TrEMBL record:
InterPro entries assigned to the protein according to its UniProt record, in alphabetical order: MetalloPept_cat_dom_sf (IPR024079), Neurolysin/TOP_dom2 (IPR024077), Pept_M3A_M3B (IPR045090), Pept_M3A_M3B_dom (IPR001567)
Annotated family: Belongs to the peptidase M3 family.
Residues of the Peptidase M3A/M3B catalytic domain: 3-482
Record keywords: Hydrolase, Metal-binding, Metalloprotease, Protease, Zinc
SUPFAM superfamilies: Metalloproteases ('zincins'), catalytic domain
Lineage: Eukaryota, Fungi, Dikarya, Ascomycota, Pezizomycotina
Details of cofactor binding: Binds 1 zinc ion.
GO molecular function: metal ion binding; metalloendopeptidase activity
Cofactor: Zn(2+)
Pfam families: Peptidase_M3
Protein name: Saccharolysin
Keyword Transmembrane helix among UniProt keywords: no
Organism: Beauveria bassiana D1-5
Protease among keywords: yes
Length: 484
């Protein structure tokens, strides 16, 4: 969908994909009706009203108001960005390009969006391959861990491979013993940190942090110490024999390290509240706050190193394949960093608008005014209307997007708003605590002591308000995308 240059190829694929699973429409409808019926029998106003008890949202009205308010503020900037795509399509139509249907109107079609977005990215010269060359897997992952442990005043001691025989599931796994180097802790042992970052056959195809061992307080006052796994599924490209990561992998590492820190640094009485056993919005907010470090100029230059400088063999291969060219800069150049950062605002606005569309649909089907209203609801039309409102493209007909909305059938019903909410909380945490000095040990200590160490043992709304000194608002998120 990004690379096919003939529009009919993309159109044929998209229409077939969009129209699949019509049999799931009735199943989805039955599920939302049963959820609503069950909630009302228990005395709740809706399924959303029932489910919010385990989340940070104060009420269904709070969620609805949040989605409406953000939508009103982001749709305007979104239309400005979308105009770039419309203008590109018009230009291609004037050129009689086979990439678009010259006989159609100028409205961007669903099968054109990814292709046009790819062309716009190339126009702006965001050279992802050139950027990846500065993130050799081994060196970059070590640098990220080194930075975060330094900020938190932790010491990571590698556990020798021979000592791990029978204790790890793959030779790809690295393990560190984590020690506290802060003045107050005086060299206390924290726990064990595992990293299993590369894809392999039969491995779970997702990025996550796994709590291998929770900490809790025993009756005698001692506690088992925690162990956490940073488990990713990266498939690095191999360039001149060196594995290199994409920038999106770097973002993922910082995000998942936020969850790993929750596992390692929380100290709770009960194991049920340890680590990331918190409200979804709060836990993902921690990861989102950490992601910001993957966009900072100083941080990127600190963790980057062109692969050619990491091994003599790589340098020889680079020189052989780039005869007559000057050696590349050792760290990620300012120009490439600027390209990344400038593109980030656009991508975030687009991402937030998509989240608002999906969260709006979730609330529409799980928070109706009455059961009778839900019975009359046309879920497909609601989904199509919201997609057009927030993404400016009308979905293909026939299409049944709710038939493949797996989140709403796997525990996220009435909770999809958590994605946008976690971004709000993450930006609040980052801008209030880290923005002035992202490497400040005082800021990182506060992050640890006032947010991470409590796990889920305290009300997270109160915890966040104490940390911020006020209730969270959308101002930090809007500021991060240039909307005041």
């Amino acid at each position: 969908m990004r690379e096919a240059t003939v529009f009919t190829t993309r159109k044929t694929f998209h229409e077939a994909w969009a129209a699949r699973l019509p049999e799931n429409v009735a199943i989805f409808r039955e599920a939302i009706l049963l959820r609503d019926e069950n909630a009302r029998r228990m005395g709740y106003k809706s399924d959303a009203d029932f489910n919010l008890f385990s989340r940070m949202a104060k009420s269904t009205e709070w969620v609805e108001d949040l989605l409406t308010d953000l939508g009103e503020k982001l749709i305007g900037p979104g239309t400005v960005l979308f105009k770039e795509m419309e203008d590109l399509k018009r230009r291609l139509m004037e050129e009689k390009s086979e990439a678009v249907d010259a006989g159609s109107d100028t409205a961007v079609q669903p099968w054109e969006r990814l292709y046009l977005a790819t062309l716009l990215e190339r126009d702006k010269r965001i050279d992802q391959k050139a950027i990846s060359a500065y993130f050799p897997f081994k060196e970059t992952s070590a640098a990220i861990l080194g930075n975060i442990s330094s900020y938190l005043q932790l010491r990571l001691e590698p556990v020798a491979k021979e000592d791990l025989e029978g204790c790890i599931w793959s030779h790809d796994v690295d393990v560190w013993a984590v020690w506290d180097e802060g003045e107050e802790e005086n060299g206390q042992f924290v726990g064990y940190f595992y990293a299993d970052l590369l894809d392999r056959e039969n491995k779970y195809k997702h990025n996550q942090t796994v709590e291998l061992q929770a900490s809790y307080l025993r009756e005698d006052g001692t506690r088992p110490l925690p162990a956490g796994i940073l488990m990713c599924c990266f498939s690095p490209e191999v360039v001149d024999g060196c594995k290199v990561l994409k920038h999106e992998n770097i973002i993922t590492m910082y995000h998942e390290l936020g969850h790993a820190l929750q596992v390692l640094l929380s100290r709770t009485k009960w194991s049920a509240y340890h680590g990331y056993n918190v409200a979804i919005e709060f836990g993902e907010g921690i990861g989102t706050a950490m992601e910001n470090h993957a966009w900072l100029k100083e941080e990127l230059q600190n963790i980057s190193c062109h692969y050619a400088y990491t091994d003599d063999a790589y340098m020889q291969s680079w020189q052989k394949n780039n005869r007559g060219k000057p050696l590349p800069p050792r760290t990620l150049p300012d120009g490439l960093i600027e390209d990344l950062v400038n593109d980030r605002k656009k991508r975030r606005i687009e991402s937030y608008l998509k989240q608002l569309s999906d969260a709006g649909f979730d609330m529409a089907v799980h928070n109706p005014k009455s059961h009778e209203d839900l019975e009359k609801l046309d879920e497909t039309k609601i989904y199509h209307d919201l997609k057009e409102m927030y993404t400016f493209i009308r979905p293909t007909v026939p299409s049944y997007p709710q038939a493949d909305f797996s989140h709403l059938m796997s525990g996220y019903n009435s909770g999809y708003y958590s994605y946008i909410c976690s971004n709000i909380f993450g930006e609040e945490i980052y801008q209030s605590n880290f923005a002035a000095d992202p490497t400040s040990k005082t800021a990182w200590k506060r992050f640890r002591r006032e947010l991470l160490q409590y796990g889920g043992s305290r009300d997270q709304t109160e915890l966040l308000e104490e940390f911020l000194g006020r209730p969270p608002t959308t101002a930090a998120l809007l500021k991060s995308v240039g909307v005041e």
